Amino acid sequence: MKHDSHTAEEVAEALGVAILMNGGPGTVHAPRAFAAYEEFAAKT
What Rg do the C-alpha atoms of the chain give, in angstroms? Predict the structure, then answer.
């Protein structure tokens, strides 16, 4: 497995954990982080 590439499912799982651990702020920033991931993943 390459360490430089992650699937959308892995990113979503990590963001889900961040939401569970961080609560309110995570619910605001996780969708933005996932949108950024999708934007940059589409360029590669």
Answer: 11
